[in-house]
Specification:
Elements lengths: L2 E6 L4 H10 L3 E7 L10 E5 L5 H15 L4 E4 L14 H28 L4 E5 L3 H4 L5 H21 L5 E7 L5 H4 L3 H9 L9 H12 L10 E4 L10
Parallel strand pairs: 1-2, 1-4, 2-3, 4-5, 5-6, 6-7
Helix pairs in contact: 1-8, 2-3, 3-5
The chain binds nicotinamide-adenine-dinucleotide.
Length: 237
């Protein structure tokens, strides 16, 4: 039977690729602050800001009511506001934590009742390798993404008795609008630091998310899995 899935950040980039990757197996709700288009397969598009707790809870409840449950939740919504720490404002810090970490927690919390009731509950957080190693100019972003690891591992423990798996995916440099906004020389340096010598594609992250949602991944929980072309290995040569 077709699963019911909800993907935040589902309008573009990695989130959109996840929506498309899940489409063959699921009815997918693509939730985004920037008017998402409905999935190519079956599903719906919901315009919601994950910083708005009431709207987020309403949207998740609407999906659960319409579908009679919810099986897979993928938290992909994310932003960057890069600045070196000694110049970073409270707003730059707060916005990033609010969207990337608190938004993911709120999405998960709104879905937990339905996930626990599902026979195939799956929760996936999209973090970043920069949450595992740190990155110059990204104190806010790295802290938010490291926070997803603690959140994901804790929820993995809390939901295990209900058979729900919770995993964290940590992409390296992926070719999306987010990284296209970087100066060309920063992109070139990122590729040079990647052993596979290229940027990743959104579809390559989405393929892992799809696998983690599948029945085949039922014994995998509490993990953090990089999709980074080998960047965490360090030196290229
Ligand atoms: P992107 O900017 O292309 O897409 C992010 C999506 O999140 C957008 O559709 C945006 O509208 C949505 N979003 C932002 N704020 C939101 C909010 N408040 N409420 C709802 N939706 C909101 O970026 P991407 O590269 O596709 O990134 C997707 C996720 O992957 C992010 O969490 C990002 O941190 C993470 N990531 C990306 C890379 C990369 O290299 N691109 C690497 C590591 C991790």
């Amino acid at each position: 039977m077709r699963a019911t899935a909800l993907v935040t950040g589902g309008a573009r980039g990695i989130g959109r690729a996840v929506v498309d990757a899940l489409a063959p197996d699921a009815w997918v709700a693509a939730l985004d602050v920037a008017s998402p288009t409905p999935p190519a397969g079956v599903g719906t598009a919901l315009e919601v800001d994950v910083r708005d707790p009431a709207a987020l809870e309403r949207a998740v409840a609407q999906v659960i009511a319409e579908r009679g449950g919810l099986d897979w939740v993928v938290c992909c919504a994310g932003i960057v506001r890069d600045r070196v720490s000694w110049k970073m404002s409270d707003a730059e810090w707060g916005d990033v934590l609010d969207v990337n970490l608190t938004g993911a927690f709120r999405t998960a919390r709104a879905a937990l009742g339905a996930l626990r009731a599902s026979p195939r509950g799956r929760l996936v957080f999209v973090s970043s390798i920069n949450g595992l190693r740190g990155r110059f100019g990204q104190a806010n972003y790295a802290a938010s993404k490291a926070g997803l690891t603690g959140l994901g591992r804790t929820l993995a423990l809390e939901l295990a008795r209900d058979g729900v798996t919770v995993n964290v995916v940590a992409p390296g440099y992926i070719d999306t609008e987010m990284t296209r906004a970087l100066p060309a020389d920063a992109r070139d340096r990122a590729v040079a630091r990647t052993p596979l010598q290229r940027m990743g594609r959104s579809e390559e992250v989405a393929a892992l998310v799809r696998f983690l949602c599948s029945d085949a991944a039922g014994f995998i929980t509490g993990t953090v899995i990089p999709v980074d072309g080998g960047q965490l290995l360090g030196a290229v040569n």
